[in-house]
Amino acid sequence: MFTTQNDSLHQLILDTPPRTMANFLIMRVVQRAFELIDLGPRQSCIAFVIDKMGQAALRIFVRNFFKKENIKLGKELVESIIKAYLKMFENSSWLVQKTKDSAISKMKKMNYIVGYPDEFEAPGALDQLYDELVSCIFNC
User: Fold this and answer.
1) Residue 128 half-sphere exposure, CB side, CA atoms within 13 Å?
2) What is the Cα–Cα distance from 140 to 131, expressed in whole angstroms?
3) Which residues, including other chains, have CB under 8 Å from residue 44's CB and lie 6 or more apart?
4) Each residue of 96-129: pLDDT tens digit?
5) d(CA 35, CA 39)
6) Per-residue pLDDT tens for 24-68?
7) Domain ranges of the chain
8) How far is residue 101's CA from residue 86's CA, in Å, rounded to a whole number?
């Protein structure tokens, strides 16, 4: 029988509200159904390109659908969120100092990308990223 610490799976099922159990089971059925859906060759190709050439797909998407001024606003939003978290950690009365210091250190080291990485904006930069892939396609 399955156990979690000292509780049996049977007891867990008995203790779980019926609505929660029904929601869980419905979600599992829906997740499984989505795995079985055939999206067709076009969607399969799109998924393949995004999986294997994510940076290139992102670059095309950002160039066609993002406005530069929105990217700037997004960066400002992220920076203000980071500042708010830092202030929250610094002013926290319930975090022990070691945890507080660790959280602040992690926040300060965190990198973020809004839109598209600037280093790939230079002409040819993205080509270098996929050069090995292209060489393999034509020479393997």
Assistant:
1) 7
2) 13
3) none
4) 999 999 999 999 999 888 877 777 777 777 777 7
5) 10
6) 888 988 888 877 777 777 777 878 877 888 888 888 887 788 787
7) 1-37
8) 10
Torsion of the alpha carbons at 128, 134, 139 and 140, rounded to the nearest 10: 110
State how far the Cα of 100 lies from the Cα of 92, in Å rounded to an integer.
8
Give, in order, the Cα–Cα distances in Å from 61 to each of 90, 119, 134, 138: 38, 17, 21, 26
Handedness of CA 98, 101, 104, 108 (dihedral sign): negative
For residue 66, the cross-strand partners are none
CA atoms within 13 A on the CB side of 78: 14
Alpha carbon of 105 to those of 9, 78, 112, 113: distances in Å? 40, 17, 15, 19
- 29: tokens are 């059925």
d(C-alpha 76, C-alpha 82), whole Å:
10
